[in-house]
Amino acid sequence: MDSAMDIRRREPEEFRPRHRYFISAVLVVFIIFFGRLLYLQVIKGHELRFLSENNRIRLIKNTATRGMIMDRKGRVLVDSRPAFNCMVMPEDVGDLKVLTGKLSHFLHLSPDEIASMIEQRDSPPFQPVLIKRDISWEELSSLKTHRLDLPGVEIQIEPVRTYPYGSVAAHVLGYGGEINKEELQEKKGYQMGDWVGKYGVELTWEKDLRGIDGGRQVEIDAVGKEIRVLKEVQPVSGRNLYLTIDLDLQRLAEELLGKRSGAIIAMDPLTGEILAFCSAPSFQPALFAEGVSAQEWEKLVSDPLHPLQNRGIQGMYPPGSVFKIVTSAAGLEEGVINLDTTFTCTGIYYLGPRGYQCWRTGGHGVMKFYRGVVESCDIYFYNVGARLGVETLGRYAEDCGLGRPTGIDLPGEKAGLVPTEAWKRDRRGGRWYAGETLSMAIGQSYLLVTPIQLLNLMSAVANGGALLKPQIAKRVEDLDNKVVEDYPTEEIGRLPISSKTLEELRAALVGVTKEDAGTGRGARLEGMEIAGKTGTAQVVRLKGGERQRAQDMAYELRDHAWFVAYIAAHTPLAVVVLVEHGGHGGAAAVPLAREMIKKYLSLRRGEE
Questions:
Q1: 531: CB partners within 8 A, 6+ apart
Q2: Could you give the count of Cα atoms lying within 13 Å of 522 in the half-sphere of its Cβ?
Q3: What gap in Å lies between CA 421 and CA 573, rounded to an integer?
Q4: Domains of the chain and CATH, by start
Q5: Across the chain, how many H-helices and E-strands are there?
Q6: Tens digit of pLDDT for each residue in 304-340?
Q7: What is the pLDDT of residue 44?
Q8: pLDDT of residue 40
Q9: Buried b vs exposed e over 213-230: b needs ≥16 C-beta within 10 Å?
Q10: Do 433 and 356 meet the contact criterion of CB atoms below 8 Å apart?
Q11: How far apart are CA 131 and CA 143, in angstroms?
């Protein structure tokens, strides 16, 4: 008994060192766990709570439908349709290699492409990455069928632009695309993946057309599957934009140009409203709505015909004889000529030993102002230009709206060029020669204009001298059809001539189409008085009798054809036609303007 008790008393003594080691180990483990808990709860608590909440609750954006774009009569030019986008939430992806392999099969993309999109994401954590926009019904069905095998894959619905009339008015309507990093820095309220207007009225009226995005707060499980909706905010659709364009006139303008390069613009000279605006060749804006590929974009920008260029406001050309409107106005207003001033046209004008030709071989004979304008005699206007000088010519050109943007609400408008002695000295490093003044007087030399500038000039002649800002938008309406913004007529200047000079000029411009010898006689319409001016702008300088052989030259060396006109009656319409490398204005441009005027008149009669 005593010996047994002695053994029990001795056991603690034998195990005491091990007991201390055990207690120490427990304390160390406890300290480690306590330190880790402190780190997770206190130091990293906020971050981990954020991650945990985002693993349980997700915010899914509901993109607002962009507003419609319509013509002046309410016909829809641009609308939207629902598109299904394949998205991937990287945080929910288990094995990236396995996922990309499966998605590659369903979306017809390479695994490397998909992996690169996910790994190089620009969006913040727990924001899905766009893999493929506007997937087909077949692709959508495959993804939905195999969704349990595709952790992290989501389908989001997004409105996509549709164009009922294809490429009609493409340079006016413009296009959009996914916002880039530079745009993201400039624009507030956007995030990566958003669709934004990039060109045309889609860009200019982005704020009105965009709308307000909504969203859903949803609870998801561990593999990203939606369990229930916690909260939802409905998106607000964008406002509708009504253009001044008349679809019937617009479609005719595009049919008339066909495969030719150039521009046709029609405007109401009393209000500045653009009724038709065609630039050719054109492009399909739907290509951008669906997501233009790198190959498609390269094809567009490398096309030698430059289909993305808006020739109506960005194409800069010598105005040719259309500029004689300015030379006439300056000559009459400055008093260097009057209606009875005569110059004899023998077919050539000599400045020293050098001869400057008239377009008519053999000449026009004795010319007064009226005949000089009607028959567009170059010799007559060489004489007027020599009396005026380059500085006076330039001043009148600028005051007539040339050499500066018109202010039309389309992006990328060019200013053109009105040369002066100082300009040539500073930019070309040489002095101005008297012969260059002669060339400028008939719309050549370094002079460059855009079609919209010449149309604005002719409209000012038609309306009594007011240079108006060309209007492309008529009004903006909200979803209740309430007008939230309209665009009244805006005067941006006046022609620098008296009413007397204006009437004398108008009479001569009517003669251009009315007289049998007029260069614009092909525009005549029975019972309608039309004023106009043709122009043939040289691309290269020709010598001797080469002008008559221009049609035998290479296409890119041929003259540009111009015609600007207005209806000289109470019915308001002004039109400009430019046919690149079309040859003579009377042959290539006048017939197109005549058809535009006929169509306009028939539409007006149908409305009455």
A1: 461, 462, 506, 509, 510, 512, 513, 565, 566, 568
A2: 16
A3: 37
A4: 58-233 (3.90.1310.10), 247-281+310-478+490-607 (3.40.710.10)
A5: 23, 23
A6: 999 999 999 999 999 999 999 999 999 999 999 999 9
A7: 59
A8: 57
A9: bebbebebeeebeeeeee
A10: no
A11: 13
